[in-house]
Predict the structure.
Amino acid sequence: MAIHDHLLRLRPQLFAYARALCGTPDEAEDLVQDALERALNADNPPAEMDALRPWMFRVIRNLHVDAVRKDKVRREYAAHHGRLLSDESEEPGDPLQDLLVRQAFEAVSPPHREVVFLVDIMGMRYAEAADVLAVPEGTVMSRLSRARRAILDRLDENNVAPILRRKRN
């Protein structure tokens, strides 16, 4: 199977991951497009799906980190020179995004949200997530534990966690 076919199959997962990192669909779409372009222009991208999937997640993560850094530098430059930057106003959210579970997920720190997304939503093994994040497997496990606890605590505040626990059992 050609890399094009693998990338087409991965695209929904890549978009979901980018959406978790960026927050808005437009930014996520741009991030995925940039990652796909990088993959198609790479000299030796992984040919097998098992290797390509985590590689693409790393590409997206690295592109996102670069974008955050660029934005920070841009804002610092603008602040130093007394210039205002126009912030795009967010479009009204989808009603499903207002659910308490989504709010709890978004309330955790980005590194914790990222590991929850990779392991719990995308179904990656700890080793795969560690590879994507370029951290030890133990770091993935501890971040995941803290993130799950933070999400459950937030849901407990809204009396949602007991309902979710009953549904799992």
Q: What stands out?
A: The domain at 92-169 is CATH 1.10.10.10 (Arc Repressor Mutant, subunit A). The helical segments are 3-22, 25-41, 49-80, 100-107, 110-121, 126-133, 137-157, 161-168. The longest helix spans residues 49-80. The two ends are 40 Å apart (CA to CA).
